[in-house]
Fold:
Amino acid sequence: MSEQIYEFKNVTDILVLDEKQFERFLADFKEWFHFQKQARAEAEKLRELGLNITLADVIRWKDDDMIGVGKITIDVQKARDY
Structure:
């Protein structure tokens, strides 16, 4: 089985999933939700110290055919100097 990665920018983007995928996604989404709440609170604390961290407003979900999150991947990009 190949692990497909989906990107959801709009709520209706999840409509590409079938029923079984949707059930797996919901379990993973709960973990994404809690992670985002915590990460955004921490980012705000760092912003007050002068460190700007931007979290993406998109969900990238890998359908690994399992319920639950095995790992969370974070991409770090250096801001461009203009």
